[in-house]
Design goal:
Helix content of chain B: 55-70%
Strand content of chain A: under 5%
Oligomer: heterodimer
Number of strands of chain A: 0
Radius of gyration of chain A: 24 Å
CATH architecture of the largest domain in chain A: Orthogonal Bundle
CATH superfamily of the largest domain in chain A: MetI-like
CATH class of the largest domain in chain A: Mainly Alpha
Shape of chain B: flat
Order of helices and strands of chain B: HHHHHHHHHHHHHH
Number of helices of chain A: 12
Structural class of chain B: mainly alpha
Chain lengths: 335, 301
């Protein structure tokens, strides 16, 4: 019974946040300047007279007051109709449906790789704390995390695509070969490298810091006195204890990696949600931007809540201690 | 038997004569590890070079020399020219001013918002505090690049001022969280109560009592924020939704890179980027030093 109430609370919280988010984003998108008619009809707008313009506005539902538009939009959204993309003149869902898988593949792979490597590197650095190898890794890590991802992309393209000519520089697959697996993998290598290079250190650093803090606890001393060696202590005891922090870091990093993916997609002209975002921003395609924001927001909020639930399950101490969760993923450090 | 002076060694009798002159000798390398002198020096050079760009430039940065388009680095153009025929060496110093200006202005904006918001949230009642913190969590849940794109799309054509405001209002959340938790710890202290009783207004207490307490906790994030603001600006300009090409900054210089890529003009991409990365690295190093000064414990392992 308690579980049901707990779950219900979470769901209500989730729905509330999403509704709030959609209201904010909707208002922003409707209040913003820029002419949606222009992006829908292109240059045709200049040939229209006022009556035609009004009619067109009516057709696109731009005349009603905003709160009414929002309610209409919400009602339509319940049926799965999220409006027309002004730029592609298609349903938003259709446009997104074509490309969202690409983003999931790229983002998902980047996410998994980042966290696997971060954990391994974090443990390695902790075991060799303050030794030369740890210091070298730290310095290299700081350098890589300083480099803006778009510039790494440019360098990699310059080296591997232009000069060596071994890897493709744009797209998700070679022309007409959308089912060719090797082609797809070839196109994934560079974006993935960039995503791992530019994000890995943030998480390695946070995990390393947590572990370094953990090995200063008293129980580590006890383990050591009992005769366990370093690796056993870290793997069997410390790792378990930092798991909640690890999961929290994983959760807060979702917007971070997603944002990185969007930028990288744009640089490599990889057809995905990110490229779509920049396109729609350029052409004032607010219906599209709205849905993209919402998708991202829902994903992130969902992951955050999931992390909380998991943490509550594996570590009952966390239930009353939500303030402990730190959100400082943007600045590369946990405090 | 009588004891005489000299039977015993008096410990430390002539300590002055025996005193070995030990001046605490810290090797140069060691002091480098403690304080980021190199980073500070390099950063200073870059800032000075940008601030006095009139002296460091050897060409007019906005002048498009059509006879020397895409020239490789040579004696007249130290770093070559870009695809509009502008001298990259001069552009770096000239454009650095705008990049650094955006970094600092955006940080000032975000820090002020964060300090005020965090303090209000910290001293407010449970309910309001909870709501304000939920709001920051929502704001944090959207990738900031997406919010920036959104606002940029609303603003349209941007200039350095508008872009720093946009970056500023999208990067205050992390700092405000720290401010809030710090304020929460000290808000019931006697001296704050006393200040309140004496009729101190909110902003007076903030400036006089709260700020000095949490300034060290947020200082390193503020430093880091300068770096990330510069990086964000360059990313935006590169992607074509930031500064236009006519306004020279390190980011907008790189926005010509796509054309340069095809013809393998590496200097257009490499050189401004190196400046950008070196600056960011120095700022990060300094920020790291600020943070490390506070906590150091010994391992039990």
């Amino acid at each position: 019974m308690n579980d049901v109430i707990y779950l219900g609370k979470k769901v209500i919280q989730f729905v509330l946040v999403i509704v709030l988010l959609s209201i904010i984003v909707f208002y922003m998108s409707r209040l913003s300047p820029g002419d949606p008619l222009m992006s829908y009809y292109g240059d045709g707008v200049e040939r229209m007279n006022t009556a035609q313009k009004l009619e067109a506005m009516d057709k696109l539902g731009l005349n009603a007051p905003i709160y009414k538009q929002y309610i209409d939009w919400l009602a339509n959204a319940a049926h799965g109709e999220y409006g027309i993309s002004y730029k592609y003149k298609q349903d938003v869902t259709v446009v997104i449906g074509d490309v969202y898988k690409n983003t999931i593949i790229l983002g998902g792979l980047a996410y998994t790789l980042n966290f696997l490597l971060a954990l391994l590197l974090g443990i390695f650095c902790t075991l060799h704390e303050d030794q030369t190898i740890d210091k070298i890794i730290c310095k290299v890590g700081v350098v890589t995390s300083c480099i803006p991802s778009f510039w790494v992309s440019l360098l990699l393209i310059l080296i591997f695509s232009i000069n060596l000519g071994i890897l493709p520089s744009s797209g998700a697959y070679a022309l007409g070969q959308s089912n060719n697996l090797t082609s797809r993998i070839g196109h994934l290598v560079l974006p993935l490298t960039v995503l791992v290079l530019s994000h890995l250190w943030y998480y390695t650093y946070m995990i390393r810091n947590k572990l370094v803090e953990e090995i200063r606890q008293d129980y580590v001393l006890l383990c050591k006195v009992k005769g366990l060696n370093k690796k056993q202590i870290v793997y069997k005891h410390c790792l378990r204890n930092i798991m909640p922090s690890y999961i929290t870091i994983m959760a807060i990093s979702v917007p971070h990696i997603l944002g990185g993916t969007y930028v990288v997609e744009k640089v490599f002209s990889y057809p995905g949600l990110g490229s779509l975002c920049f396109e729609s921003a350029k052409y004032h395609d607010y219906n599209m931007l709205l849905v993209l924001c919402l998708i991202t927001g829902i994903l992130v909020v969902f992951v955050n809540m999931l992390a909380q639930v998991i943490n509550d399950k594996i570590d009952p101490r966390m239930k009353h201690d939500r303030s402990e969760i730190d959100w400082n993923c943007n600045t590369a450090t946990s405090i | 038997m009588e004891l005489q002076y000299g039977d015993f060694d008096i410990v430390g009798e002539n300590y002055l004569a025996e005193k070995i002159n030990v001046t605490k000798k810290t090797s140069f390398l060691k002091s480098l590890q403690e304080k980021p002198y190199i980073s500070m020096g390099v950063l200073l050079i870059i800032i000075m070079g940008c601030a006095f760009s009139g002296v460091t430039m050897n060409h007019q940065p906005t002048y498009m020399d059509l006879r020397n388009i895409n020239a490789a680095p040579n004696r007249t153009f130290y770093f070559g020219t870009d695809s509009l025929g502008r001298d990259i060496f001069s552009m770096i110093w000239y454009g650095g001013r705008i990049s650094l200006f955006i970094g600092i202005l955006a940080t000032v904006i975000s820090t002020s918002i964060a300090v005020v918001y965090g303090s209000i949230s910290g001293v407010a009642s449970e309910l309001i505090d909870d709501m304000m913190m939920r709001f920051t969590e929502i704001a944090l849940s959207i990738p900031s690049i997406l919010i920036i794109i959104f606002i940029q799309a609303m603003i349209g054509q941007s200039n350095p001022l508008s872009i720093s405001i946009v970056i500023g209002i999208t990067s205050w959340m992390n700092i405000s969280k720290i401010v809030r938790s710090e304020v929460r710890q000290i808000r019931n202290s006697e001296y704050i109560l006393a200040a309140k009783c004496a009729g101190g207004k909110f902003f007076y207490i903030l400036k006089r009592h709260l700020l000095p307490n949490f300034i060290s906790a947020i200082m390193f994030m503020v430093v880091m924020n300068i770096g990330s603001a510069i990086a964000t600006e360059s990313t935006l300009s590169f992607l074509g939704i930031g500064l236009p090409i006519e306004i020279i900054s390190w980011g907008s210089m790189l926005s010509l890179a796509e054309k340069a890529l095809l013809s393998n003009y590496w200097w257009i991409i490499l050189i401004p980027g190196v400046f950008l990365v070196v600056t960011l690295f120095c700022i990060t190093n300094i920020g790291d030093y600020v943070r490390k000064k506070n906590n150091k414990e010994f391992s039990n392992l």
